[in-house]
Design goal:
The chain has 2 helices and 4 strands. It is of the alpha/beta class and about 80 residues long.
């Protein structure tokens, strides 16, 4: 999203392999982006607490749908 200066990697699942692949892809794509770009993973449901912590440890936001709309969990190092 150029307007928000954000790289978003969408995945069709929330398994460990999906999340790890998203982290790797964002690391690769980030090399070509502005230095102040935000990174996020878009998934179809909330992943496990462990995988949310993994994303947060990498400074990657998480976006997923809930009954009341979209939820965003901000990654923090």
């Amino acid at each position: 999203d150029e307007t928000a200066q954000e790289l978003i990697e969408a995945k069709g699942g929330t398994s460990r392999s999906h999340i790890r692949m998203a982290i790797g892809q964002l690391a690769d794509y980030s090399r070509f982006a502005e230095t102040n770009v935000t990174r996020a993973v878009l998934v179809p449901e909330c992943p496990s607490d462990d995988l949310m912590a993994l994303l947060a440890s990498q400074g990657i936001d998480l976006i997923f749908p809930r009954d009341d709309g979209w939820h965003r969990s901000e990654g923090s190092v």
